[in-house]
Amino acid sequence: MQKGRWKPFSGAVTVFHGRRLPEEATPVGYAALIEAYDLAAPIPLTLAAIGPRHKVYQDDGWRIYTPRHAPGADLVGHLTFALRYEGLDLAVLKALFRATGPDAIISMVRAAPTGAYARRVWFLYEWLLEERLDLPDAGQGAYALIVDPKLQWAIEGTASTRHRVKNNLPGTSGFCPMIFRTPALEAFVARDLAGEARRLAAEVPADLLARTAAFLLFKDSRSSFQIEGEDPPQDRIQRWGQVIAEAGRRAIDRDELERLQRIVIGDARFVHLGLRQDGGFVGEHERETGAPIPDHISARHQDLPELVAGLTAFDRGAARALDPVLAAAILAFGFVYIHPFEDGNGRLHRYLIHHVLAERGFNPPGLVFPVSAVILDRIDDYRRTLESYSRRLLPHVRWRPVDRGNVEVLNDTIDFYRYFDATPHAEFLFACVARTVDVDLPAETAFLRAYDTFKGRVSGMIDMPDRLLDLLFRFLRQNEGRLSQRAREREFAALTDEETAEIQAIYADLRLSLDIGPEQRRE
Q1: Roughly what angle, to the nearest 10 degrees, separates helices 324-338 and 423-435?
Q2: What number of CA atoms fall less than 13 Å from residue 46's CA on the CB side?
Q3: Engineering a disulfide at 362: which of 103, 167, 214, 324 sits with its beta carbon 3.0 to 4.6 angstroms away?
Q4: Domain 183-438 falls in which CATH fold?
C-alpha cells in the first residue's frame, strides 16, 4: 500500500460498508478515513456524516452533521474532525497510522506545531506504534488532554512534556478499551449505587444480613455455571462461591488467572490448563462435517501472553482510577473477548467483575452482588452485549478451519482485543448492578424476614422441627399458598383441617404484606 494516499468520497451516499444512512449524506471523520485508506479495523458503533440540512441528529448508528461542520477533504481535516466530534477509536487510529506512515503525521505537526489536535495525533502515533517520530520536543502550546472527557471516560493522567499533552487514557498501549459518556452511564454514576447498597445493608440486622449474603453468594455461583449450560453438584457450586467471596484479595496476573482456572475446571483430564496453545472460537460446529461456525474468534494463542500482561497492567493501574463498574466492564469483557483459556473463560470473566467491585470496596462488607444471577435473567441482553463487538470484529479476522473442529487465525489481530468500544458493556453491567441494589438485596432480606415471621407464628401454634417448617413453607410457595392433597396425606397428615387453614392464612398474610412471589428463583 502506498503510504499517505488519499481516496476521498466522490459525494453523498446512502450505504456505507453495508450500513444504511438515515438520508443521503457524505461520511466524514472515521468513516472517511476507513474508506480512504481501506483500513482493516472494526467499524465504530456510531459513524458521522454531513447531511444537507442545518440540523444535527443521531439515528441508527449515524450522527448527521450540518454542512457547516464539513471538514477539509484531506487526512488532517477528517482526523481533526474525528478527534473533535467522535472521540478516540484506538484500533482505527493505529491502523490509520500504519497506513499513512510517519511522514504524513510529521507534516501535520510541522504545519501546526502548537495546535492541540496536531500534538494529540503526534502523541497517539508514538504511543500506539511505540515509534519515535523525527520531531523535536514541543516548546509551546497549552497542555492538551489526549481524551476529551466530555466525550469519553478518562483518568487524571500524567503529562508528556515532549508533546505538551496530558495522557489521560484509561489504560496502556497494551490494553485500552474506551467508554463513551452516555446519558445512561452519567445517570448510573450519579446514583452512587455503592452508597445505596451500604445504606440498605446498614438497615438490616447483622444475622439477617449474614444469611442474605450467604444466599446471594450461592445464587451467583450457581447462576454462573447455569449460564454455561452446566448443572454441577452443590459442593462444586459452593466451592466456586467461596472463591467469589475472596475476590479482590489478590491482584490479577497470569498466575492468578491460571490458579482460578484450575479451580473452575475441577476435572481437567480432557482440558488443557493454562493459556491456549492453539486457536479458539465461540460458536457451533456444522452437524455433518464438524467444521467451525464461529460467532466470535478469540485472540491468537501467540498473542495471549502479551494480552494477559495488558490486562494485568490495567488491573493494577487505570482500573483503580476509573469508576469501579466501568473498570469491571473493561477488564471482564476484555478478558472474555481474548478468551485466553481452552475452558473456564465465561466463569472467570464474571469472577473479574466481582474482583474489581470487591477490590474497590464497591460492595457492602461481606456481600457479593449476584451479577451472574442477573445476567442469567437477562441472558438475551447479555448475548447482544457480547455481539455488539464480536459481530463487528468477525469480518476482520481471516481464519481457516483446522483439525478437531478448531480455527487458525491468519492475520494480525492483537489490536482488536486491546482496543474496543466498551460502552455497551458498561451500560449493561451498570444495569445489572442496579438491579441487585433495587431488587435482589431488598427482595432477599424481605423474603428472609417473611420466612422468619412464618416460622415464628407457626411454631407458636404447633411444635414442629425446623426441617419440617422449611418443608412446609416450601410446599406452600410451590402451590400458591395452599398445601396440596398429597402433602396433607403424607408429610403433614397430622395437621387438622383447622390448623391447615390457619397456616395457609399466615402464609397469605405474609404474601400480601411482602412481595415474595417473584422470589420463586430460590428454587
Answers
A1: 120
A2: 21
A3: 324
A4: Fic-like fold (1.10.3290)
In 3D space, the residue among 188, 211, 179 whose CA is nearest the CA of residue 422 turns out to be 179
Residues 156-189: tens digit of each pLDDT: 999 999 999 999 999 999 999 999 999 999 999 9
User: Angle of helix 183-191 relative to helix 193-202, nearest 10 degrees?
Assistant: 30
The CB density around residue 268, as the number of other CB atoms within 10 Å, is 14
What lies within 8 Å, CB to CB, of 50 at 6+ separation is 25, 26, 28, 64, 65, 66, 67, 69, 70
User: Cell triple for residue 187?
Assistant: 445517570
* 166 HSE (CA, 13 A, CB side): 13
Strand ordering across the sheet containing 158-160: 144-145, 165-167, 158-160
pTM strictly above 0.70: yes
Q: Which helix (H) or strand (E) holds 293?
A: strand 292-297
The set of residues, in sequence order, having a beta carbon less than 8 Å from that of 377 and lying 6+ positions away, is 521
| Strand boundaries in 131-263, DSSP class E | 144-145, 158-160, 165-167
| Tally of CB atoms within 10 A around 15 | 8
pLDDT in tens, 185-228: 999 999 999 999 999 899 888 888 898 899 899 999 999 999 99
Percent of the chain with pLDDT over 70: 96
Helices (H) and strands (E) in the chain, counts: 21, 12
Measured N-to-C along each axis, helices 441-461 and 193-202 cross at an angle, to the nearest 10 degrees, of: 20
Alpha helices in 247-344 (DSSP H): 254-265, 304-316, 324-338
Indicate the average pLDDT of the chain: 92
Q: Which of 144-148, 233-237, 268-272, 281-285 has the lowest average pLDDT? A: 268-272
- Give the span between the Cα atoms of 391 and 300, in whole angstroms: 17
| Domain ranges across the chain | 1-86, 101-169, 183-438, 462-522
The whole-angstrom separation of Cα 231 and Cα 236 is 10
